Amino acid sequence: NAGVTQTPKFRILKIGQSMTLQCTQDMNHNYMYWYRQDPGMGLKLIYYSVGAGITDKGEVPNGYNVSRSTTEDFPLRLELAAPSQTSVYFCASSSAGQTYEQYFGPGTRLTVT
Amino acid sequence: EDKVVQSPLSLVVHEGDTVTLNCSYEVTNFRSLLWYKQEKKAPTFLFMLTSSGIEKKSGRLSSILDKKELSSILNITATQTGDSAIYLCAVEAKGGTSYGKLTFGQGTILTVHP
After folding, report:
1. Which of A44, A59, A100 sits opposite B34 (nearest CB)?
2. Phi, psi of B53 (to 5 degrees)
3. Under an 8 A CB cutoff, do B106 and A41 touch?
4. How many CB atoms lie within 10 A of CB B28?
5. How many CB atoms lie within 10 A of CB A102?
6. pLDDT tens digits for range B10-60
């Protein structure tokens, strides 16, 4: 099992560019999440999904979009990148019965300049 | 809005010391309190505490939930350099679409010197 994988590991974007962060899990988890972590801060939930076709906003959704067409994949789209979106992005997944035990991917470090 | 506050923000100790990390929370419809350890990259799950399970222990790590004070502590005894990490506390609310939506504290950075 690879667990949760994320690509790319690093990316530098110019202001106004767009990109998609990829996330895939092979544990057949229904629940998937996107977090961002700013320096010295904890994790903040951007979007989450309880199953294919179902997504909902978290604490900080502005400037992002998601889709969930399969159980395995949960891409995060950044439109019109801004410096405030410079952060480390983590994808996570969990089973429906143990939502508290989330398995995290290795993260994507994004810099917007 | 749910809120989690951790203290101290950072801690430097020597191997063999015992440390206590603190977490206080405000949450509507509390379901569970969680501790995660974050080393160089992704957080990994340590403990889950609920109203019906207020103490957990695993090796040198232990955690207690104080339901009255709305807080939790994470104790690490006989610290080792491998315990150096960010320790994250989070709470999960219950009901409706709240399951799985964790609110994290800002973390405590623990550094253990040899």
Report:
1. A100
2. -145, 90
3. yes
4. 10
5. 29
6. 999 999 999 999 999 999 889 999 999 999 889 999 999 998 778 899 999
d(CA A60, CA A85): 11
pLDDT at residue A34 is higher than 90: yes
Q: Are A75 and A66 in contact (CB under 8 A)?
A: yes
- The answer to whether the Cβ–Cβ distance between B106 and A44 falls below 8 Å is no
At B63, the amino acid letter reads S
Chain B contacts of A48, Cβ < 8 Å?
100-101
Residue A98: partners with Cβ closer than 8 Å, 6 or more residues away: none
Name the phi and psi angles at B79, rounded to 5: -55, 150
C-alpha distance across the termini of chain A, in Å = 36
State the sign of the Cα–Cα–Cα–Cα dihedral B28, B33, B38, B44.
negative
Q: pLDDT tier at B98 (50, 70, 90 boundaries)? A: low
Q: How many CB pairs under 8 A join A and B?
A: 62
Instruction: Report chain B residues whose CB lies below 8 A from the CB of A59.
Output: 103
Distance from CA of residue A52 to its chain's centroid? Answer: 15
